[in-house]
Amino acid sequence: MENKEQLLEKWHRGSGIMHISHLITASRHQRFHRIVGTFSSSLSAIVATSIFVAALEDSSQMALYYTASGLSLLAAELSAANSILNFPKSAEAHQRAGSMFQGLRRKLK
Q1: Chain segment 10-32, per-residue pLDDT in tens
Q2: What is each CA distance from 47 to 39, 67, 72, in whole angstroms?
Q3: CA–CA separation, 26 vs 19, rounded Å?
Q4: Taking the alpha carbons of 92, 95, 101, 105 in that order, is the dihedral positive or negative?
Q5: What are phi and psi of 24, to 5 degrees?
Q6: DSSP state letters, 21-64
Q7: How many angstroms separate the CA atoms of 4 and 10, rounded?
Q8: DSSP structural state of residue 3
Q9: Contact, 94 vs 22, CB < 8 A?
Q10: What residues contact residue 103 under an 8 Å CB cut-off, 6+ apart?
Q11: Which of 8, 11, 18, 70 could form a disulfide with 101 if both were Cys (CB 3.0 to 4.6 A apart)?
Q12: CA of 97: how far to CAs of 62, 69, 86, in Å?
């Protein structure tokens, strides 16, 4: 059977691990949000430009039209995924949980 000091030390180590892991996850979710948002915005700009180019030139460039259509679908899917997954909210929740474990860790010390 563990004594109180060993138990407190075990909890202190565990809360430290949880504190660090939540902060790492929060940082990762913020980075995912930036990457997906940037990629989605870039694709939307490329699609808009491609559509204008295709409209100005002759209609024999169907490959450009299909590429623009595919990129348009991909941009829409990325935007939807970014909205559904809600990385900022998840990152904030992990940040809050990390702070709570940090407070617990300080109390245990």
Answers
A1: 888 888 888 899 889 988 888 88
A2: 12, 8, 6
A3: 11
A4: negative
A5: -65, -45
A6: HHHHHHHHHHHHHHHHHHHHHHHHHHHHHHHHHHHHS-TT-HHH
A7: 10
A8: -
A9: yes
A10: none
A11: 18
A12: 52, 42, 17
- Whole-prediction pTM: 0.62
1 pLDDT above the threshold of 70: no
- CA-to-CA dists, residue 30 to 22, 25, 78, 84, 99, angstroms: 12, 9, 16, 15, 16
Question: Which two structure tokens, joined as six digits, stand for 87?
Answer: 């990385």
Task: Please name the amino acid found at residue 41.
Answer: S
Cβ–Cβ under 8 Å, residues 9 and 55: no
Q: How many residues does the chain have?
A: 109
Encode pLDDT of 38-77 as tens digits. Answer: 887 787 777 777 776 666 666 666 777 777 777 777 887 7
Q: What is the pLDDT of residue 54?
A: 67
What does R_g of the chain's alpha carbons equal in angstroms?
A: 24
